[in-house]
Fold this sequence. Notes:
By secondary structure, the chain is α+β, with helices and mostly antiparallel strands. It contains 10 helices and 13 strands.
Amino acid sequence: MKKWLYVLLLSILTLGLAACNDTAEPVEDASAEEESADADEEENTEGTEVDEDENEEDEEDEEENASELTVMEVYEEALKAAESLESTALTMNMEQEMTSPDGEENITTSIQSETEMTVDPLTMYQDMKTSAQMDGEDMDSNMEMYVTDEALYMYEEQLDEWIKLDTGMMGDINELANQEDPADQLKMFEQFVSDFDFEQTDDEFILKIDVDGDEFTSMMEEMVGDFMPPEIVEGMAEEGVDMFEHMKINHMNYEMYLDKETFDLTQFNMDMDMDLEIDDESVAIVQSIESTYSNINEIDPIEIPEEVEEAAIDESELEL
């Protein structure tokens, strides 16, 4: 069972993924397409025809808004914007299913999180809800966390207590913040920029990549190795679990949406199908992530509420 828990942890930690001279292919964004379809349906119902002049005007507007930037130029501007990020809010939804080779063991996990963070100073508030089902048993948990440069407070649901944690954990929190950082999301794909499909709407650049095979395995190993706490790596070794040697990505689809004016990363979506070999048996993992960045550079440093500070017990008291 421990090996399954290591697999679950590893898979959750992997969240956090056109030719270079080609410009973006103009496409209609989803909301505009829906509105257009509704309008067409209404006009057809009333027996009217679409005005050809209006269509010509729309095409002219699209041409005026079309950017001539290449995918590499957009990527470089997006990286600059991400590296100068001061603050952001992040909404993340993850769905994951793990299945044993015989199909008898199945673990499904759903995570919804809301995060607000500033970069300098590093402050953060996160509210995360996790729902998992293993062997027919439901395991739900809620977690809240406040982080400042001086303190770390976490809500422990089972104890119904706020706990003030040792500031020695701040290194791990910095790693968590890196996972939330748009710059890290972009840097992961630096060597694959030329492989992205490159599209644009009136307001956004869209970078998409859809790959099969194991060309992303080395990148995933590096990403997980950077973010995984040393004690987990040691625990995996003790259990004889070598994830990196036996990890195979069957298919991955990744989308990044960038604001056309600021080049800020506003959304990324990922679907991944991978296998992990455990004791010469392959565990199938299917994962889907949808994340949205908002209020970019508009969030003030997070302050710990007075009621949390007053109610919190010290970590040392908890151990006693």
